[in-house]
Design goal:
single chain; about 80 residues; mainly alpha; 434 Repressor (Amino-terminal Domain); globular
Length: about 80
């Protein structure tokens, strides 16, 4: 599972709710979760704020392709 999707689901919110909270289109959230788009730094900041995580932590999660569970089990502590 994609890291963004994993994080969103851990927060118990829908794509629609994340889109509304971040000011992004639902289609954009969907493309990011499916790996069909690469987020800009502005998009990362918006998503991080909406998900209550650090932009750096979210960026690392997106770049690594890991799930949140993978990240928690490793030595990464940026979220």
């Amino acid at each position: 599972m994609n890291g963004l999707k994993s994080l969103r689901e851990q927060r118990l919110i829908t794509q629609e709710e994340l889109a509304a909270a971040s000011g992004l289109a639902v289609a954009t959230v969907s493309r990011l979760e499916r790996g069909k788009a690469k987020p800009s730094l502005k998009t990362i900041r918006r998503l991080a704020k909406a998900l209550d995580v650090s932009p750096q932590g979210l960026r690392e999660l997106l770049i690594s392709g890991q799930t949140l569970l993978d990240m928690e089990q490793s030595t990464f502590h940026g979220l």
